[in-house]
Amino acid sequence: MVQPKEKRYYVNTMLSDHYEIYHVKDNVNNEKTVYHYHDFYEVHATLEGVATFFLDNRQFDIVPGTVLLIHYNDLHRILKQSTDYFERVYIFITPKFLQDRSTEWTKLEACFQQVGEQRSKVLQLKPEKLHELLQFVDEKPSQEMYGSDILYEQQLVNYLMYLNQLIEEDEQEKPTLPAIQNERIVEMIHYITKNLSHPLSLEEMEQNFYVSKYYITREFKKYTGFTFHQFVLKKKLLYSKQLLKQYKSSSEVYSKCGFNSYAHFLKTFKKEFGMTPKEFLKHANENPPIQFTEPH
């Protein structure tokens, strides 16, 4: 068995509050990876190794050259690693960073815009091209070298422009097909996503999909790692954050997310996000910097 190479993190925290870059080489511990989401965008690039990834409603293999454009608040996780060694680069970046560096002709946020039902996207580049694009990551700027911070940031922008061009021109290689699929559960997930204003009980799913509650409970946990009720609640709460930004009032939002009680909505929102809806709105309006403590 090939021994895992030395783990190394490179974290860029000194240049900007609105992006962080991690270069990670290690063996993923599948027991320690968890479903999660961010309030900012993530660009996840695989340089070496193969793994199965869950992104919002999809499971698929990521291989050398795979780039994931992960929209904020989309659930994702590395489910399992197929090789002993895995090397990847994460870039966490705020919408404000992309907006501030965009022009009328060049919108850096375009690659994260929704197409059909999907906001997050999967690209497949030639591995050697991806290595070339990400060479700048380990070239840490120095305060003693005039302009090195600006040059570093410009290479980040160049990388993002390249990814936007791939999507606009639709010339990238086709991404790998889903590695694991349960079509019935996928259909249920799409139904949940489109009907978050519904109660979405097991009984409702039984009536719509003609399968037993036992089947739903077992297969949902197997496919997503969540119980059915956990998954529905998390999707409703993530949806509520979108609606809060639109309506600016939690009293107008809770019923649109399928909560029967305003008090229940407030309680579960605070438990999930560590803040009240009012605090979330204040936080969102301030364009908060990235706050992230550890690669995943």
Describe what you observe in this structure.
This protein is an alpha+beta fold. It folds into 2 domains: 19-169, Jelly Rolls (Sandwich), CATH 2.60.120; 183-285, Arc Repressor Mutant, subunit A. Helix content is 38%, strand content 17%. A 5-stranded antiparallel beta sheet has the order 1-7-2-5-8. Strands 4-3-6 form a 3-stranded antiparallel beta sheet, with no helix packed on it. A hairpin with a 2-residue loop joins strand 3 (51-55) and strand 4 (58-62). It is globular, with a radius of gyration of 20 Å. 28% of the residues are buried. The model has no long low-confidence stretch (mean pLDDT 84).
How much is the radius of gyration in Å?
20 Å
Amino- and carboxy-terminal Cα gap: 24 Å
Strand % is 15-25%
Helix/strand-derived category reads alpha+beta
Query: What's the architecture of the largest domain, going by CATH?
Result: Sandwich
CATH topology of the largest domain: Jelly Rolls
Q: Strand order within the widest sheet? A: 1-7-2-5-8
Main sheet summary: 5 strands, antiparallel
> Mean of the pLDDT scores?
84
- Write down the domain tally: 2
Compute the number of helices: 10
- For the record, what is the CATH homologous superfamily label of the largest domain? Regulatory protein AraC
Uncertain regions spanning at least 5 consecutive residues: none
Helix content: 25-40%
The number of distinct β-strands equals 8
Shape: globular
